[in-house]
Amino acid sequence: MYQIDGINISELNPDRVCLNCVHWQANIQLKGAAEGVICRLGNGHTNPTDSCSQFEPTRTSDCLQNPNNYHDKSQKLLVFKRF
After folding, report:
1. pTM score, two decimals?
2. Cβ proximity of 12 and 61 under 8 Å
């Protein structure tokens, strides 16, 4: 298990939180993040530790064999902190 800013990120995604949800995405324009990180299901700006009944886990693990998913979550947290 790894942590980013004190938020646990599990290889198996047991935490039903926005950070581990496939719908929690950075709102990106051509020159970077536009409005921070939002729920693509219309729930607006949510916190990484929020959860809802529409949670769907990301399909890949966060282990070192797949650093891209870990990097993706790190980037979302950085964008979240900026906005």
Report:
1. 0.75
2. yes
| Residue 44, token pair as written in the block | 């607006």
- How far is residue 11's CA from residue 8's CA, in Å, rounded to a whole number? 10
Q: Which of 18, 4, 12 is nearest to 66 (CA)?
A: 12
CA nearest to 9, candidates 52, 67, 53: 67
Q: What is the pLDDT of residues 16-25, one digit of tens each?
A: 889 888 899 9
Own/partner long-range contacts of 9-13 (Cβ < 8 Å, ≥24 apart) = 9/62, 9/70, 9/73, 10/62, 11/61, 11/62, 11/63, 12/61, 13/57, 13/58, 13/61, 13/62
35 Ramachandran zone, left/alpha/beta (phi>0; psi -120 to 50)? alpha
